[in-house]
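User: Can you write out an input/output pair for a complex, sequences first and structure second?

Assistant: Here is one pair. Inputs:
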Amino acid sequence: MHEMSICEGIVQVIEAQAALQNYQRVKTVWLEIGALSGVEIEALKFCFDAVCHDTIAAGSSLHICEVPGSAWCMQCARALTVTARYDPCPNCGSYQLQVTGGDEMRIKELEVA
Amino acid sequence: MVKIEQDILGKNDQYAAANRRHFAERAIFALNLVSSPGSGKTSLLTRTLHDLSGEIPLAVIEGDQETSQDAERIRATGAPAIQINTGKGCHLDAHMVGHAVESLAPASGSVLFIENVGNLVCPAAFDLGEAHKVAILSVTEGEDKPIKYPDMFYAADLLLLNKIDLLPYLQFDVERCIDFARRVNPQVEVMRISATSGEGMSQWYEWIRSAREQRHA
C-alpha cells in the first residue's frame, strides 16, 4: 500500500525516541509485521533505505519478523491460522471468523550507537 | 539495544484519538466514506446533503489528490465544505483531518462526512477518528472487489452498493458480491442504493439517523 509513508512513520518514531533514550545513530531496526497488515514487505525494504537517507538511521539494516494471521472460528469455536481475511475455516468451511492477530505493524527494538 | 515497542502508525492513532474526543465533546457524528475512484461518492454525498439539509446540520471534508472541484460541487448544495489535497498522498490521515476540522468548525450535533481519497487500499489503515467507515462499491466495478481489496471491506461497518439502477445493463451478481463481502467481514451491513434514481436512499438516511443517535445517546 503506502510503504513509503510507513517508512516515514518508522523514522519519525526512531527520531523521537533518540532524544528520550539517548542515542545518536541506529544500526539495526527490528519490526514486527503481521500477514494481514496489508504491508508488502519487499516494498517496505525498498523504501526503507531511501527514507532513512540523511537521518540517524541512514545505512541501518532492517529485520522483519513476520507474524502469521490468526482467527477464531465462531462455528467450531477454535483458534486457527489464516493467510488472508477471506480465508474460510479449514475445518468447517465457514467464513464466520474473527481475526485475532496478524495485523500488527510495530517497531520492536533497535541496535544503536 | 533499545526497546521501542511502538505501533508504526501510533502517531496517526494519537491524532485520531484527539479527533474522536473533539467529535464526542461536540456531538459530531463523523463518517469516513471510502471507495475506489468513480464509485459515485460525490454524487451520493450531494444527494444526501440535499435530502438531509434542514433536518440535521451537515459538513463535509473532501479528500482528493488534486483540484477543489468536489468541494465546489458540495458547496453548491449549501453545506460547508473544505478540500484537502493530498498531493502525492494516497490517503487522508488523522493529522490532516484534525487541521481541516479546525478550519471548517462544524456545528455541534453535525453529521460530518469525510470523503476519503478514491482508493480501496491505503485509507483502510488510517483511523481518522470517525464513528464508522462506510464503503461505497458501485455495480459497474465488479462483484469480486471485496475479496480483491479485503482490508477495506473488513474495516467498513456499512457497505453501500451504488448505481443499482444500472443492474439491467450489467452482468453483476449482487448476491455473490454480498457473499464475498461477508466472507471478509461477517458483520458488515449492506444496502443497495442508487444516488441517481434515489432507490434505497431512505434506508441509508435511516441508518445515519439511528447510528448518530446511538453514538451520542
